[in-house]
Amino acid sequence: xxxxxxxxxxxxxxxxxxxxxxxxxxxxxxxxxxxxxxxxxxxxxxxxxxxxxxxxxxxxxxxxxxxxxxxxxxxxxxxxxxxxxxxxxxxxxxxxxxxxxxxxxxxxxxxxxxxxxxxxxxxxxxxxxxxxxxxxxxxxxxxxxxxxxxxxxxxxxxxxxxxxxxxxxxxxxxxxxxxxxxxxxxxxxxxxxxxxxxxxxxxxxxxxxxxxxxxxxxxxxxxxxxxxxxxxxxxxxxxxxxxxxxxxxxxxxxxxxxxxxxxxxxxxxxxxxxxxxxxxxxxxxxxxxxxxxxxxxxxxxxxxxxxxxxxxxxxxxxxxxxxxxxxxxxxxxxxxxxxxxxxxxxxxxxxxxxxxxxxxxxxxxxxxxxxxxxxxxxxxxxxxxxxxxxxxxxxxxxxxxxxxxxxxxxxxxxxxxxxxxxxxxxxxxxxxxxxxxxxxxxxxxxxxxxxxxxxxxxxxxxxxxxxxxxxxxxxxxxxxxxxxxxxxxxxxxxxxxxxxxxxxxxxxxxxxxxxxxxxxxxxxxxxxxxxxxxxxxxxxxxxxxxxxx
Length: 549
Fold this sequence. Notes:
Blueprint: H1 6-20, H2 25-34, E1 48-49, H3 62-82, H4 87-90, E2 91-92, E3 97-98, H5 100-107, E4 121-122, H6 127-142, H7 154-162, H8 165-168, H9 173-186, H10 192-203, H11 212-229, H12 234-247, H13 253-262, H14 274-287, H15 292-305, H16 311-317, H17 322-326, H18 332-356, H19 361-374, H20 380-402, H21 435-438, H22 449-469, E5 474-477, H23 482-487, H24 495-498, E6 501-505, H25 511-518, E7 525-528, E8 536-539, E9 545-548
Parallel strand pairs: 7-9
Antiparallel strand pairs: 1-4, 2-3, 5-6, 6-8, 7-8
Helix pairs in contact: 1-3, 2-6, 5-6, 7-12, 9-10, 9-11, 9-12, 10-11, 12-13, 14-18, 14-19, 15-16, 15-18, 15-19, 19-20
């Protein structure tokens, strides 16, 4: 197999840095300086060698080298903390990176003495070259981004956010994922299950009992203890950065840093209700029966949406003469005819909302008021509480959907290898997406099995999304080799490079409509393009992220 592209290598660095809570560029630097050992997959390693506990075969591919290198860096920093190294010894806050002293120690090599299990060892390398490669990768990460390289204020910003986060925690799934990510990285654990088990030990209960409300209480207690125990160690900082990223549903760690520069308030704002509001709107025509309360709710929404000063003026804007509805001389037949016309205009308005919704305050308040009146709730606060419950219901539906077995390919007969993909064949048995769509007519073939599997992964989800929307997807972009991604202005960490992202359009639907049809259910990344109003983006990352391009 051929050597991976830098973007593909970077994908593996990101995965393992996120898992272990280390600074990703150090992995890229180890690869650049060591370029050894020679691996069976055509790549070179990060300088990780087998010891007497570890079989060399477990270090013979690039992903394994990255995984073990990340583990060793994490154990090394833990050892140094145990030796009374302080935050300033490990991290240079002004430069936003590991200290020169720590990089020098890493360059000296490392063999864990007390680690459980087989960890391997990190071979020594030239310290000056390692530092230079480390700084070069950091500079590459910042290229084209509006993030200050001097991150001296980052710790204060992170603490400002976490000190208030329990006030705004309402048990929504992305919020729970954010806090669990913080627990996992803070406690140097590899999985969410391990994080939950650690919280169960805090509560002195079996992990199986730590579900839903009880888990939320344990998470809030954990977060409330962080600020006084924060010492600025790198893994602690990474834990809080990951919390910020997931809490704000941002695509990358760098976006989280950027967002903290702008605001540290953890208040998610009313936009947290957008998915539930639009889901309510999409279901409303099915339940509209022309009742007075329903008609009043939608009319009031229309009035607030259009910023009209009175109900009579709103009816006029809908093409209805308000005097007919109040005139004592109007016959029942006339009133009924006008009511039918009004219902038709109101439903037409409702059906246009998803495409017209631009998430501004006026539109959002109009929808909240409609929910309140439709449900006969006395206060706006009660309407917001009902929307939180709607959001949790939608998240449960999404979780149930995610737990359904995915469609798998046959056991790799020749026609499914990347060399022999038949462009006319569908990616999934009984599926709707073809390899011609995924590979741009065969001009963008997957370069390795990892990309091939990623394309299959997103096809599984996209098939379900297509069924949900109920219309064919017209694919505009799927897998993009790095040079094409750069040429079209794709994001540096674009999932298109990995292969598990799709841009698409649907006839007679705007990008906004597609976005709001999928948002309550989509488990990964979901985006819209401001320059291309009909385009929608989906990807198969393992956490929810929402943004505009």
